[in-house]
Task: structure prediction
Amino acid sequence: MNTKEKAFSWVDSHRDEMVDLWKQMVTIDSGIGVKEGGMEMGNLCAGILERLGFSIRRVSYEKCGDTLIAERGSMDKPFVILMGHMDTVFFKGEPLRRPFTIKDGKAYGPGVLDMKGGVTILLSALQALEEAGYRDFPVKVILDADEEPAHMYSDAPELIRKESRGAACAFNFETGFTDHGLVVQRKGCWRFFVEVFGRGCHVGNDPENGRSAILEMAHKIIEIEKLTDFSKGYNVNAGTIEGGTVANAAPAYCKIECDFRYTHPEDLPVLRKKVEEVCSRTWVPGTKTKVSDNVGFGTMQKLPENMDLLRLAQQAAEENGFPVPGPKLCGGGSDAAYTTVEGVPTLCAAGVEGARNHTVEEWADVESLFRRTKQMAAILLKVEETL
Ligand SMILES: [Zn+2]
Result:
């Protein structure tokens, strides 16, 4: 058997162990803001990587689990990045409410698709190659623990950028798609708040004195939503609203949170200016408006080299009889933004395949766990030939 065949045969003979690892991860409660679960995920992954000969660095934060940087081989040479996140979008207690289960070839549970299946593939592909006696290529694994809230609690984006320099290519094991495609481009996301400050009054006794913050905001929402232009690849959503106290008082305060998705990074400053222009206009005299940034995600840039990497993945799929992945543009952000901004060719969505992530209906195709582990092992062998 050659190296690839040995790696594939390791996958075939370790299906139960792979599912066990997947289950173990889904059972760990690493939802948003659950720091101890993020730490537990980190310890589990670090233990496996250490056994595979990686040296581990940890960057710690107050409110989320550590970011792990695991390296094997010389980082002076062009190295391969394998990356992912260990957190989920769910709240504390979700794995108890909805434990890992498999039914009719589909796996369920919090983060089963996004992206604990992907982390399982990442670790299993390395292990399969190791067991096949192959560990020649320098590789860096980056796993963070607060991707879902867009790194509210960490400096992971800067860290990923810094750790990416000198890399030959990167694979992010995000949520895979049932059409088998791999993501070569992702939209960026700018989340911001708009607050309107008006003046309250009793609408029975003193109606002329009111300055309705809600009415002012209503005008602003309509203008902000008009900025959507799908033909230019951007769209905005006023997603939440709060304001007012009782029906018989003019509302003195209103706040919305918006999410702007954009394809081209150069659009962001223009869109930001347009939002500020809308917010500087006043429809209800006497009200004041403030715009402030919340979290955001950069765009995963469509580097021409992403397509070269995709061709390599397509060849690996063709040679082994796997479904051939097409290129995908995805509206959701990911950490692949931070490798591409450093010019590192990147493919994203290399994880297990499924649908409905970020909801309780999230599911993943169990068979894709094994197929995509083999596929990644085959891709890594091909990448190594090009290094
Ligand atoms: Zn994800």
